[in-house]
User: What shape does this take?
Amino acid sequence: MTPGGSDGLVVDAEVRRGSFTLAVTLAAAAGQVLGLLGPNGAGKSTLLSAVAGLTPVSAGRITLAGQVMDDADAETFVEAARRPVGFVFQNYRLFPYMTVAENVAFSPRARGMGRRAARSAASHWLDRLGLAELADRKPGQLSGGQAQRVALARALAGEPALLLLDEPLSALDAGTRLDVQAELHRHLADFAGPCLLVTHDPLEALVLADQLVVIEAGRIVQEGTPAQVARQPATDYVAKLVGLNLYTGRADGSQVALTGGGSFVITDDGLRGEVLVAVRPSAIVLSTLPPQASSARNTWPAKITGLTMLADRVRLDLDGQPPALVDVTPAAVAELSLSPGSHVWLAVKATELEVYTRAGTQPA
Amino acid sequence: MTRIASSHLTAHERARWAARGGLPRSVPAPLLPPALIAVAFLLLPLAGLVIRAPWRHLAAALSGSDATQALVLSLWTATVTTGVSLLIGVPLAWVLARTSFPGQRLLRALVTLPLVLPPVVGGVALLLAFSRVGFVGRYLDYWFGLTIPFTPLAVIMAETFVAMPFLIITVEGALRSADQGFEEAAATLGAKRMTVFLRVTLPLVAPSLGAGAVLCWARALGEFGATITFAGSFPGQTETMPIAVYYALETDPEAAIALSLVLLLVSIVVLVSLRDRWLRGGSVQ
Assistant: This one.
């Protein structure tokens, strides 16, 4: 199935809200989970809102399975209630005065099913998501994970052709998040239509999404598979999310002159011109003396400006040409007496540098 | 160093103060007498009413035909008024809360005008509009032979005119502050706009709807000025309880006191039913 094929979602639109403009072009095929990754305020939720019909587009159009949902030029608009869309909101928005069963029966009923048929449709979905025992509870009596499943059941019970998930796991505590995530992964795999998943958790995006779109300040800055995005981030935001050092520079044979000063020796893959260089913080070797006769082709002096304790290692913030994040063991910090202000030497092998062009990204 | 004055603070007072936090709450001396005068002024008359009540023949005083008629008339007109106000006031509250159009603020001010307007003025206005020679009433009379003033319908109209705004502003406020996220969710679940209103919006504002209806009912029950002006005071037809009390005071003071007690009781019930919203005042939970 090609994106934008007969069952897919195609968005080529602008949404203006005050001084903020979201301008994106994207497509999601049936059965595909398209992750929308980006910082707060990037426009991810605005995009979902436009696809659901809660916000009209200011220009361009949105089509689903070949049918126009919104077209600013043709001045046509399909009301939210008529779009075959299931929306799982960030805080779930379960109706607090209804039981779980009534919440799940709401959509079948609103879409024209009789009371009895709606109730049996609801119980089917409750069974399917393992919620049968909670049918008579009110949303206030549910745990976060349960509420998340009820919200998913409620969205699916309307038999939507498209599923929208707005940070579905962000309201959960870390303990239950992994379980719910695994379960959500299963249910998303069962869903036949396209699915848009908004997140700012890179792990969530990696596990749940087939394809990623990174949105920053209302623009798409990178597209690709989760693995590609994680290995070759296009922007500082993504690099920080996936924990990589990211540099921009000009490649010239086996040399990259970095934009912020300094340079790297790289393996010559024939890249020329503007490139990005990504380095894992654990790939950089730190020593207190200038390394001599080392196999590392890149060595440079730097000064420690900060230390952060991570789970099992210490992340050092270093100022130099170029600056870098470097991961070392707590033992190394103690043995080398590293502290803010310490002058050290950094080294990295050319083969540890991921050098690539801004392919798969749209110019801002 | 000059000597610093100290005051007495018991363990009990310490514990209460510490638990509550903030500044000490003992009353500054100059505020106490006026506060006590205000309490006495408000409560003494009510106490007098209770003390002077003809408890022994209360039932007899209330079962006098005029009193019973007034009681029954008041109860059913106030109830119909509340029903009418719900039917037409809630939609207006929605319009005022959720739409914007030129002149909306002016309309809102005008709609809530009866809250501050002397009820007699309301009665005069209703009379000018709906009397047999009024600019609306003359056509009602001419086309349908319908004469409104001095009928129970006039009582209901007078009460609605005065009481409905209480319902409207209560519900409007609730609609404004209700979380519209639930309505968005309902729309994405396929609910058309009227379904959203009936199945999501109304249940969400149900507590305010109840409070507004009770307030409206109580106001209608106590209505005097607009009713006596527009509907008059025909026993059994338009003589509601407050009007009956007013006239009974001259002819049958015991009945007047008995009727007043009933109204006092109703007011207390209303106050208790609204306690969650009103009696807490500005306190933060």
User: Anything to note?
Assistant: Residues 45 and 51 of chain B are 10 Å apart (CA to CA). The first helix of chain B runs from residue 11 to 20. Chain B is about 70% helix and 0% strand. Residues 279-285 of chain B have pLDDT under 50 and may be disordered.
